[in-house]
């Protein structure tokens, strides 16, 4: 991944997190402001790059028993919750439920935003 793609992914994730926070009454995810969303997106990316592969390796036996998409979903929720735990100003009001809703919303909104960027020739 080149630097421009990395920056675009970071900004898209920050925008997605901020949108999820704006929907806080429905998601239970709270982020103080867009600056915290930028920090949260960076932490989320670092957590996904460094910790997720280790957890995926540990959960490999579960992947054989359970559907791999379920294990991937559980990892996404865990990474979302860990990022919230590490960033002051990024809160999960309903605990694991907010992490589940937030991880689903992040995947959905990121997909839409990346599709829009692809349509206009960015990325």
TrEMBL record:
Ranges annotated as spanning the membrane: 6-26, 38-58, 64-84, 96-118
Keyword match Transmembrane helix: yes
InterPro entries: Phage_holin_4_2
Keyword Ligase appears in the UniProt entry: no
Keywords: Membrane, Transmembrane, Transmembrane helix
PANTHER family according to UniProt: SLR0284 PROTEIN (PTHR37309)
Protein name, per record: Phage holin family protein
Species of provenance: Planktothrix paucivesiculata PCC 9631
